[in-house]
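Hey team,

Filing this mostly as a record. A colleague (T.K.) asked me to run one chain through the structure pipeline before their review meeting, and I want the input and output archived in the tracker in case anyone asks later how it was produced. No errors, nothing strange. Just documentation.

Input sequence:
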Amino acid sequence: MLRSLLSSSLFRIDLRRLILILAVMSAFVTLANSFYASYRVQRQLLIDNTLEENRVYATKLAASTEQFLKSMQKQLAYSSVIAARNFDDPAVLQSETARLKYQTDSFNSVVLTNAQGKILATSPDSLQLVGHILKTPGALEALKERRPLISKPYTSVAQNLVVVISTPIFTAEGKYLGYIAGTIYLRQKSILNELLGEHYYRDGSYIAVLDKERRILYHPDVYRIGEVVKPRPLTEAVRKEPNGSLMVTNLAGQNMLAGYAVVPSSGWEIITQRPTDSTLKPLEGLMVKVLKHLTPLALLTLLCVWLFSRMIARPLWLLARSANEMDKPDISSNIREIPSWYFESNQLKRALLIGINLLQKKIGKLKFETQTDPMTGLFNRRGLAMALESVVQMRQQFSAITLDIDHFKTINDSYGHDTGDEVIRTLAEQIRHNARESDILCRVGGEEFLVLLPDTTLAEAEMIAERLRQNVEILVLPGIRPITISLGVSYWNQQMGEPETSLKRADEALYKAKQEGRNRVVVVPE
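Output structure:
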């Protein structure tokens, strides 16, 4: 069953199908490679663009934050001059802290202390801290350093996680009086929250701010503010260069595209992150568009491949079919008509024609050898049968002449078989010399011959037989005595039954000629 299916035209593997399969596979692989390469290029392009956008964005935010911090320090510096002039006037000091608090909303609270850390004025008044001595890390650092500072995050007296920006207060003579400071709440609404919080996106992108010790100053998740982040590739990268970008995996195992930059004055690290999935989401629609554009071209390519494969395979297919029909008489002309428009098919066509020609010659030679007597070159009994069949099929009348050499055995005994063979060949030449082109000449036995004369009457055949007898009688053969022949003649047409009966009557006439004394012609009357 399987073998019959494989041998059927549906499952047959031919050159056209092989070319088509190879071309389709090549086109498909090329299309797949192009599609995959396009996908990889577009994917990497989206990632690279997002990384660069995040780096640039982080750099801009760092610059904005730097400008914001410097602006606040300038405000504090201006207020420190006013406070130094009116350090003994509590009302002026209170007024200045209130102005800093409410004029710009830069600070969540403002405090002014003397050189011992005692609070002289504060805003808002609700804090009720006037008269208290501050011993918080930020206060102690400001009193010790006596220079403009941005503190590390710490918990304030009011139990708020804060960053303090402070400026010392000096008299015109350079005497240190204390400091004035503004606080920024990290877990509550503040200027820092407003500055960075507006950059939070619904696609999972967010911004984080870390100080030098990797403590989180800002994060969309307020519960993580104040947390110290363990060393990670991203935080380590920030330490090596002030700005850059990196692909990272966050604590939740989510792949993120991060950009980072450092705020110069504070050393804060601004980190912008966007989920890789969000970045690559537009890629699906983009690749669908690419596929839509590639599909018509691919179908057109496949159609062209199919047509071209047919053009390539058709000459070879026709040559292969002709190779199975080499026994047909007109096969050579059929092969010559096959269009062979490329080199290989033309060479195969030439080789096939040469092969057919050689084969036909070989077959013709074999056919000739099987139908021909090798000694005389005349037809043998097989050739006679085929010739007789052809004459009958063509509905031709004919006359038949049978003859043999008189006393041939005596020639063989007296002169040897070689001489006897030479006599037979000489007689064959005489028969050929006295025959017409249309006559059929046969050697049917040792010294017996038969001549078929198509479209010849009995009288004409008798004349030909007599002429042949006379020519042989006067023939001179070197080294041997003259020879004679006896002949029998008969006639046949369509009304006379089987043609073999006519040949039999000719044989009977031949035997009669021998009985009557040899060297004569005996004719069978019609």
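Quick notes for T.K.: The chain has 14 helices and 16 strands. The mean pLDDT is 83.
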